[in-house]
Design brief:
473 residues, 22% strand, binds NADP nicotinamide-adenine-dinucleotide phosphate, 18 strands, 10-stranded mixed β-sheet, alpha/beta
């Protein structure tokens, strides 16, 4: 079958690694028409702020599959990352990062074979940031139920297709009860549909600790974006580093395969870069498009080459290594040769993303509002002023918090405070608050106070949808 795949060579070492992979795949005789497209540094130089030209977007939309070299992100002159552009345009919400011990590579642990499934588009990485006052910055952590369900079902389906028997869900739900807590909750709900896979929940800090103590206890980890960013890099380190770390980015329509590493400008053009990470990514791509035989030929060739001790500099150190081209030649010569420690992999398709159909709803009732403001020097004078304002519009000042600690009425003194106060007003007597009452309240908050933003306090099906401050009753 003839396939068309968008190929982005990328920056720095990108040309060398993509050319290695292309040579290897072409040598298997699988029929791929490579559609060469641009993105990254050269595109930024042409003053295209997204770093991805329209032709590239059109090519990926048409072909649905792309193999991509690393793209340089300009630092310090305000351009967006071309990687992020691609991730957002195609909503590749699932980032699959396998970490598996390869033959011949010396690592701390002999038996690592795990996959990190990272949510790729939500969380702090939506990049919604605001300076609230000259000394207070804020970043919004957005976690949605459909976003959680998509990635968690993807993880369970992937586990099933790969014959994996357990999944750990890594969160910080003990602290962030609504955002990370939602991820944990959806994980527990979805797990019921997969009785053949054992679900575990683990706090992400403990997960990092357990991974470096005994990684063999993990088969798969599913987690939110930032947790996954950190944990997956940690896992790359367990199996030999960036040169051997592959990844797949899956969206509803599009799958984009790339190495984890960047453009490594220090070794670009020197025939030194290790193409293994992109070779492993291309194996996922070949299985994704149903080319199982070609994938097995290449996997055997790669394992045989490594098992014979033929490695690039990063894998063996400076003493006895080969260059990128010689390494690629060796893999091509070894295509299909069974390595000594070969374990047959099942010819199962690389997972297709799951598209959820659920729509959740809840009875919503607004019972109060948090108004964030600056312009106060101490919580007591602010508290007295706000109590009067609240009374004048028929509301009650419930409390004031400073960086999450209740400071008015105060049970204990916060050790240090900043001029950024979360002031919680409620309607009381179980009554619903109206928008017009919030407007009245805001209109009455006069200088020296400056309100920066508000958060409505919702009860959802009778349960509070907002956190309490430390010390709040
Ligand atoms: P990097 O390009 O991954 O390189 C860091 C260092 O790791 C290299 O200098 C090299 O170190 C080693 N290395 C990485 N990949 C290797 C490989 N395949 N073979 C051998 N050695 C390898 O990280 P960076 O220097 O932080 O980032 C450079 C640029 O890449 C930045 O513009 C960044 O934004 C971009 N980037 C892009 C992507 C992407 O497109 N997905 C991902 C990450 C970074 P030694 O030679 O010193 O050992």
């Amino acid at each position: 079958m003839q396939h068309t795949v968008t190929l982005i060579e990328g920056d720095g070492v990108g040309k060398e690694v993509t050319s290695a992979v292309r040579r290897i795949i072409d040598a298997t005789k699988v029929s791929i028409n490579w559609e060469l497209c641009q993105a990254g540094a050269e595109v930024f130089k042409k003053r295209l702020g997204s770093g991805v030209p329209r032709e590239t977007i059109e090519s990926i939309s048409r072909n649905k599959v792309a193999l991509k070299g690393p793209l340089e992100t300009p630092i310090g002159y305000g351009e967006k990352s071309a990687n992020v552009t691609l991730r957002k345009v195609f909503e590749t919400y699932g980032n699959i990062r396998p970490a598996c011990i390869l033959p011949g590579i010396i690592t701390r642990f002999p038996n690592v074979d795990l996959v990190v499934v990272r949510e790729n588009v939500e969380d702090l990485y939506t990049g919604i940031e605001h300076m609230q006052t000259p000394e207070v910055a804020q970043c919004l952590k957005i976690i949605t139920r459909p976003g959680c369900e998509k990635i968690i079902r993807l993880a369970f389906n992937y586990a099933r297709s790969q014959g994996r028997r357990s999944i750990h869900c890594a969160t910080k739900a003990n602290i962030m009860k609504f955002t990370e807590g939602l991820f944990k909750k959806v994980f527990e709900e979805v797990a019921i549909d997969y009785p053949d896979i054992t679900p575990h929940h683990i706090l992400v800090d403990n997960c990092a600790h357990q991974l470096v103590m005994d990684p063999s206890q993990f088969e798969m980890i599913v987690t939110t974006n930032m947790n996954g960013d950190i944990l997956s890099d940690l896992c790359s380190g367990l199996v030999g580093g960036l040169g051997v770390a592959p990844s797949a980015n899956l969206g509803k329509e599009v799958a984009l395969f790339e190495a984890v590493h960047g453009s490594a400008p220090d070794i670009a053009g020197k025939d030194m870069v290790n193409p293994t990470a992109l070779i492993l990514s291309s194996l996922m791509m070949l299985r994704h498009i149903g080319e199982f035989e070609a994938a097995e030929l290449i996997e055997k060739g790669l394992y045989k080459t490594l098992g014979d001790g033929i490695m690039t500099r990063d894998m063996v150190g400076p003493s006895k290594y080969v260059g990128t081209r010689a390494f690629t030649d060796a893999v091509i010569q070894n295509l299909g040769k069974t390595p000594s420690q070969w374990v047959d992999k099942k010819s199962i398709p690389f997972m297709q993303p799951y598209v959820p159909s659920t729509n959740s709803s809840a009875v919503q009732k607004m019972i109060g509002v948090d108004i964030f403001l600056s312009g106060a020097s101490n919580p007591h004078s602010l508290g007295h002023a706000l109590e009067n304002i609240a009374k004048s519009v028929g509301l009650t000042l419930h409390m004031i918090a400073n960086r999450g600690i209740q400071v008015y009425p105060s049970h204990f003194e916060a050790p240090s405070m900043v001029d950024y106060w979360a002031c919680r007003f409620i309607k009381g007597n179980n009554q619903a608050l109206q928008d017009s009452e919030i407007m009245d309240l805001l209109r009455n908050i006069q200088a020296p106070y400056i309100w920066t933003h508000i958060e409505k306090l919702w009860f959802l099906d009778g349960n509070p949808g907002f956190s309490k401050a430390q010390g709040e009753d």
